Amino acid sequence: MKIGITICCLLALTSLTTGCYYDNEEYLYGTCDTSNVTFSKDIKPIIDGNCINCHSGGVIDLTNYNGVKAKVLDSTLYKSMSYSYSGANSSKNMPAAGKLDDCSINKLKAWIDEGAINN
User: Fold this and answer.
1) Helix (H) or strand (E) holding 60
2) Would you list the domain boundaries of the chain?
3) CB of 77 closer than 8 Å to CB of 68
4) Which residue of 45, 86, 93, 109 has the smallest Cβ count within 10 Å?
5) CA gap 14, 12 in Å, rounded
6) Residue 39 in contact with residue 118, Cβ under 8 Å?
């Protein structure tokens, strides 16, 4: 009897600690808030998580706002990150590991459309 109660308690505890893994509004409901997108809150984390491992110096340096803004101004940031290149230029699509999720791309586009402000 004690073993049965122990097993039930362990199952309940396991269920409670793992049940909310995807308890994320964007994941659950497919919402993506692109209003009030800022560089520091939205864009910098996308860049840090997907770009600076390869682009942290040299010709393409995305470690700071000025480097990111330069790629916005030459129109390559959005093209690369939205996988808009094709054919011989498809190697310019970034990140190389695979396309970003739609919400990240939409936030990037919204930020660029609002003037790519350093906020």
Assistant:
1) strand 60-61
2) 24-113
3) yes
4) 86
5) 5
6) yes
pLDDT at 76 exceeding the cut of 80: yes
Structure tokens at 117: 């402000």
Cα separation, 40 vs 84, whole angstroms: 25
> Which element (helix H / strand E) includes 57?
strand 56-57
Residue 73 pLDDT greater than 80, yes or no: yes
Reduce the DSSP state of residue 64 to 3 states and report it. coil
Regarding pTM above 0.85, the answer is no
Q: Tens digit of pLDDT for each residue in 2-59?
A: 675 666 555 555 555 555 444 545 556 668 999 999 999 999 999 999 999 999 988 9
The torsion angle over the Cα atoms of residues 52, 44, 84 and 80, rounded to 10 degrees, is -30
